[in-house]
Amino acid sequence: QVQLAESGGGLVQPGGSLRLSCAASGGSFGSYAMGWFRQAPGKEREFVAALRWSNSVTKYADSAKGRFIVSINNAKNTGYLQMNGLTPEDTALYYCAAGRTIWGMIERADGYSYWGQGTQVTVSS
User: CA 98, CA 12: separation in Å to the nearest integer?
Assistant: First the structure.
């Protein structure tokens, strides 16, 4: 049974940085993609970034380009989302997801089979 566990959320001031982690277990992830999504109160869940486990090819939402970096530590089966230049608009519950996701579905939540519990990111002064 694949399980994902996020950590690293918290309260940060505008302009600050956070690094979210997503520890994966219970599977062999070489053919998987890992995606990051977020959901703010009253809004739909939206794609943030994704990475293909096998070759580290990445994709970012426009809101994340130039500020966020997604990466993988294969030895630890852990994915990361480094977030820089945070603004109050980045405040949301952040989720990691994983699955044998085809690249054309990489931005869609229904393209992933497994989800973490979410970690809250709050950007406020």
Answer: 27
- pLDDT for 2-57, tens place per residue? 999 999 999 999 999 999 999 999 988 888 999 999 999 999 999 999 999 888 89
Distance CA 11, CA 125 (A): 9
d(CA 67, CA 17): 9
Q: How many CA atoms lie within 13 A of 60 on its CB side?
A: 13
> How far is CA 56 from each of CA 3, 19, 62, 69, 92, rounded to the nearest angstrom?
20, 18, 19, 11, 25
